[in-house]
Specification:
The protein is mainly β and 128 residues long. 5% of the residues lie in helices and 42% in strands. The strands form four sheets. Strands 4-5-6-10 form a four-stranded antiparallel sheet, with no helix packed on it. Strands 3-12-11 form a three-stranded antiparallel sheet, covered by helices on one side. Bound molecules: FE2/S2 (inorganic) cluster.
């Protein structure tokens, strides 16, 4: 069910269905919640005509983290990264990136790009 609200010169549709509201707002369904666990999940997606790869994992707290799969160190893909605690470790030189993107074992390393996600209705959604 949805409600239609009309302002002076535009109409806005507000949905009471949380999935429809996310889709309408431009969120992208990235993975099923059941796919994301205590191992690195690699997901490809398309946005604005470009293909991207994301790493997803579930922290010990249960929260889901998503990160660009390109390592900021030398721009290698981290598709084979492994989970160490709540961080991902790049397979090339071993830099470890925590859930905020900060590198945990190299002081001056550039941070990884964390993707804004939300978990609801059985899916992990990527922000617009
Ligand atoms: S390319 Fe990832 S740590 Fe060097």
């Amino acid at each position: 069910m949805s409600l239609a609200l009309r302002s002076l010169d535009e109409s806005v549709v507000v949905s009471s269905d949380p999935v429809q509201a996310l889709v309408t707002a431009g969120w992208l369904r990235l993975a099923r919640s059941t796919e994301v666990g205590r191992a690195v999940l690699v997901k490809q997606f398309t946005r604005d005509g470009h293909s991207w790869t994301a790493l997803l994992w579930r922290m010990r707290s249960g929260a889901v983290v998503a990160m660009d799969a390109v390592c900021p160190h030398r721009r290698y893909p981290m598709s084979d990264a492994r989970l160490v605690g709540d961080a991902v470790e790049c397979p090339i030189h071993g830099y470890r990136y925590g859930p905020t993107g900060r590198c945990l074992n190299m002081r001056r390393a550039a941070p990884a790009r964390v993707l804004k996600v939300r978990e609801t209705s059985g899916y992990v959604w990527l922000a617009p």
